[in-house]
């Protein structure tokens, strides 16, 4: 019979444990067997039939609360751990050792080092022992030890480039210079003519100096390696090559005159500007004849001029002045004003033919030029003339070219041909 069976019977029939016959009441205290919830036949009220009065409820009298009599408090194996195997470690395997884990600070299970490596635990850090690369965080097991450094030059291939080769030096990858004096390219489209020098690809900047000017610097576009002009020197003085500009400065890459250069320019391609033409005066294409030029002066193909009877002789009948008059030109407030033009004049002399140029000063016409006595005028080609008219500046300045016949007997002549009239702040002509 097992201990458990004996214990069960003893608890049900405590009188048997005492070696006496069981009766309804053996103590004389009127306790009825089977109705007494304490299972105590001694009358001491502790629930065991020993009468020891220790209150532990087991019938052995050893005071440990279990009915085995071994005094250890667990049912029957004497080791006190409650698993019944007698080894005291509580795991039921009977070996007496604690449970093995990956956090117990001991190299056990299939670990290659303390709490790491093997199939059960995580990977090991550098310096820990290993059997296989899988045991290591670095996936490198070198001579039985986890190692994250390089072991050969092949492991340093990431450092290879046109001017260097990767080498392994005491576990560390380093770039060693190579290919000195050999061509190289960094990949920067704005650099060219590269050559390796001590591990560095030395290159030259793409030459964009062709875009340099007083107001720009040549620059390279890194997207495609092309050159472009980048604005520079804003506000600095410059020369735009225009003789009519007097105060040029750089502005956003352009050399320009804030004063606008010329105030007025006419090349007589048409009469859109609104010149006033008296009798015999014309604006049109130059026509050779009677001393008139066959070509205009302007360096383009419009061939336009203003003149008296283009390609023919002026009338010799006596008449007052016939004039060509410019539209009004606003020069108010200008400190310097010049009028320049080109002419081809073929004329008899006074009193037969008289020629003059006048300027409107805001109140009256003022003579700038006039022909007088013998000899007459015979320009062999286009001829330049300029006049300082600063003293006459106003908001409606005008100029007029005139001719008359003051006496009979005048010789036939072609008279005026004029071109490229310029009014500006300096002596200049926009056709030049």
UniProtKB/TrEMBL annotation:
Keyword terms of this UniProt record: Signal
Originating organism: Enhygromyxa salina
Acidic residues bias locations: 43-103
Annotated signal sequence range: 1-23
Protein name: Uncharacterized protein
Region feature Disordered, mapped onto this chain: 33-104
Superkingdom of source: Bacteria
